Amino acid sequence: MAKFEKGDWVQKGKRRGIVCGKNGRQLVVRWLGRDRGERVGAKALKSAPTPWVLGMEGSLDSDLTSTRSAEKVLRTWLGAENVQAAYKTVHCLEDVRIIGRAIGPVPPLLVYISCHGNHDGKRPYLTLGPSTRKSDHVYLDDDETVEVFGEAFPGMHILLSACNLGKYGQPIGQFRRKAGLGKIAVYTRGIYDSESMLFDLMVFHGMLSKHWTFTTAIERAVVAMNAIGVKGGTGRGQKFVKVF
């Protein structure tokens, strides 16, 4: 029988969690997606792979020579926490499809996508490539977008680090349900690169260091950002980040 210590990742069937402590002869395990620990006998557990993060970044500038990117900041933090990360450039929807096919049997704890976003009327869209042409917009209500995301990230939580996507909430919720995704966090207004990187790191810290659920990590990151006066651009009296 394996001997587990606090901080070890374990699994029971399809459930994966982290050992938070001991209670007599039992271990206290907090399963992914749960805020509280559960007592489990060590014999029922086996070692689980350490969680990893999948990051994808679109072009953040129409200038092809631009070096604008959040990759170095996020990789430095993840490396300091010994968290494995895949960080890939995506310029079109087909790139997302290809990366999704390569994920393998152990899904990432979090899918992080950094790109530009906005609305065409009330239709939310992503801009992945350096082009600003409307024909290159990736609309979240488009059938192909729903299909690609659904096949690539079934049941996975996604942090969409893109401006304005959550301004109108209903389309994001519909996209999540149709694609069969986990929860999605989006900005409701514009936000500077330096602000979004701070927020993203707080979410990573919450999920990977504190082992909070996705929603709890997002909510506490919002509170922390408010405490230091970062609330994004002018909005409509709503939180600058929403979870759907």
CATH top level of the largest domain? Alpha Beta
DSSP helix count?
A: 6
Structural class: alpha/beta
* Helix proportion range: 25-40%
Query: Rough shape?
Result: globular
Strand sequence of the main sheet, in spatial order?
7-6-8-12-13-14
CATH architecture of the largest domain: 3-Layer(aba) Sandwich
| Major sheet details | 6 strands, mixed
Low-confidence segments, given as residue ranges, are none
- Please report the total strand number as a whole number: 14
Structurally, how many domains make up the residues?
A: 2
Q: Which series of helices and strands comes N to C? A: EEEEEEHEHEEEEHEHEHHE
Structural key phrases:
244 residues, alpha/beta, Rossmann fold, 2 domains, six-stranded mixed β-sheet, 29% helix, globular
Report what the structure shows:
The protein has 244 residues and is of the alpha/beta class. It folds into two domains: 39 residues, no CATH class; 192 residues, Rossmann fold. It has a six-stranded mixed sheet with strand order 7-6-8-12-13-14, sandwiched between helices. Strands 4-3-2-1-5 form a five-stranded antiparallel sheet, with no helix packed on it. It has a three-stranded antiparallel sheet with strand order 9-10-11, with no helix packed on it. It starts with 8 loop residues before the first strand and ends with a strand.
